[in-house]
Write a structure and sequence with these properties.
InterPro entries: HutG, Ureohydrolase, Ureohydrolase_dom_sf
Mean pLDDT: 96
GO molecular function: agmatinase activity; formimidoylglutamase activity; manganese ion binding
Family: Belongs to the arginase family.
Number of strands: 9
Oligomer: single chain
Helix content: 25-40%
Protein name: Formimidoylglutamase
Largest sheet: 9 strands, parallel
Strand content: 15-25%
EC number: 3.5.3.8
Order of helices and strands: HEEHHEHEHEHEHEHEHEH
Number of helices: 10
Radius of gyration: 18 Å
CATH class: Alpha Beta
Shape: globular
Length: 309
């Protein structure tokens, strides 16, 4: 089911040019979204940590969507168009991850059908499977989906039970028209078996220590984009150094710095084939002074601003 609507509130400046996100975002039911030919964005949250629980991670990610919204609310809004909507959160009830992912997919497909760009707020990284289901439903079975994942982990475990660590294997084994590029891989975060599985299923990867010079990573992204019809993007917050993002399921001592995350995100979202994105694994239970949710909110605010240009 959908949870109660988030109340977007925050600081207000007595000036026509003093707008902040909370003054622009419109809460709306998905059935009331209007089709548009102009760039518009719709938030949907995924209040779920069942995949993390199954993957034996630290719990708390189900509080991520509203924590991100809280930090985003008072960020200054620098876009002339007021084109932001929020359809609420899809909740995972009774540990029924598969049903929740299906419902998230239906919401994502509904947003795309109105020609809005979905921004999905996780939730554990099991969020991505629902994200993928929605895009696949929206574009049909034959178009090539390119999945770009900013992540320290492959998330291609061979476990029989779906979790936050299995999605990309699930997708690649069942969808011949899906491709996978993961950027930020940590050798100390993945077993040899996971590297083997990635190679066997044709996944491409860039290790965290090989991202620079950044131009080489951009070239890898460009080639990947060229080989697919649409691009969907996901940020697993545990790719970020734990000094910046302590509030995650699996903290990263050797994680990426803030500028790298910003650069790659802005590069991907400005691609013409980009259709949707999610941010996952923000865990307020372990956050410090809202560092993690605040950083992700800034990344999203910048991406929205750049996509609107």
């Amino acid at each position: 089911m959908m949870s109660l609507v988030f109340e977007w509130t925050g600081r207000e400046d007595l000036n026509a040019k003093g707008k902040r996100f909370h003054q622009v975002v419109q809460n709306i039911k998905i059935e009331d979204l209007k089709k548009t030919s102009e760039q518009s964005f719709s938030f949907v949250g995924f209040e779920c940590q069942e995949g993390v629980r199954r993957n034996k991670g630290r719990l708390g990610a189900k509080e991520g969507p509203n924590a991100i919204r809280s930090m985003l609310a008072s960020i200054p809004y620098h876009v002339e168009k007021e084109n932001l909507f929020d359809i609420g959160n899809v909740r995972c009830d009774d540990e029924n991850l598969e049903d929740a992912q299906k419902r998230l997919g239906e919401s994502v497909a509904g947003i795309i059908s109105k020609q809005h760009t979905p921004i999905i707020l996780g939730g554990g990284h099991e969020t991505f499977y629902g994200h993928y289901l929605g895009v696949r439903e929206a574009i049909g079975p034959d178009k090539k989906i390119g999945m770009i994942n900013l992540d320290a982990h492959f998330d291609m475990r061979i476990d029989e039970t779906p979790s936050s660590g299995t999605m990309f294997r699930q997708i690649l084994e069942s969808d011949a028209h899906a491709g996978y590029l993961v950027i930020g891989i940590q050798e100390l975060g993945n077993t040899e078996q996971l590297f083997d599985t990635a190679a066997q299923l044709g996944a491409q990867h860039v290790k965290a220590g090989e991202i620079y010079p950044i131009e080489s990573t951009y070239e890898t992204i460009d080639a990947f984009v060229a080989a697919h019809d649409v691009i969907i993007y996901t940020i697993c917050t545990d790719v970020i150094d734990q000094s910046i993002a302590p509030g995650v399921s699996a903290p990263a001592p050797f994680g990426l710095d803030a500028q790298t995350v910003r650069n790659i995100t802005n590069y991907v979202v400005q691609k013409e084939k980009f259709v949707s994105m999610d941010v996952s694994e923000v865990n307020p239970t372990y956050d410090v002074d809202n560092r993690t949710s605040r950083f992700i909110a800034y990344v999203l605010a910048e991406a929205i601003s750049n996509k609107n240009k």
